[in-house]
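#structure-requests
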Amino acid sequence: MSLSHLGKKVIIAGICVTIGLSTFSIGPVPFASKAEAAVTYETTVIYGVNLRAAASTSGTKIRLLSKGEQINVISKVNSYWLKVSTKDGRTGYISASSKYTNYNSGSTGSSTPSTSVPSSGSTKADKVISLAQSYIGRVSYDYGTRNTSRLIFDCSSFTEFIFAKVGVDLKWGTRLQKSQGTAVSKSNLRKGDLVFFDTIGSNNKVINHVGIYMGGGKIIHNTPSVDGVTISSLTSGYWAGRYVSARRVL
């Protein structure tokens, strides 16, 4: 049966697009739950505030952020709204009023961890990670798809989409991305590096999946196992055993 006859939402487990290959096989990918992002949650909620799906009081309420909760401010939308992410993987909007958080009075205002010697590479890496996080719960996975208007991607079209937003031109397909930039060892990984995996059968180093290294032993990637963007461990479990290589493109 040709791919054109498959259903719209067939989830191809264990494989990501590799442009130019004529055949592929399918292997299982275990469920990977969402995990806490490896970023700095620098802002404290000082008064209960609603997390909304849009920067408007008419936006759907996602949940109430409780007093004392730590959040990450991704950006200040305007003088009324902040775009934030929470430790449970939610992204949304809250009031920018100093009544609700210490963002204006006590936080750094940075959406990502600060470094002692900032560089253009680290700044872009921070932005890449924040952007990728902002699509948790919004992106759907579909093998061989790159639909930016409906936010439907496979693993490599998602990395292409994210890096384009910081001016980095990635090709679509792990076959091409695995050769872009410069090689970097696993022991020297830093935020923003592309990390590649073999998810078919035993790990014989045939690359078919890509994610973004977040630091702290975490990756963020678009995967069929959760039909969207999630955060996984690179130090233990399934993805640690499937790691093949990494490339630095920032």
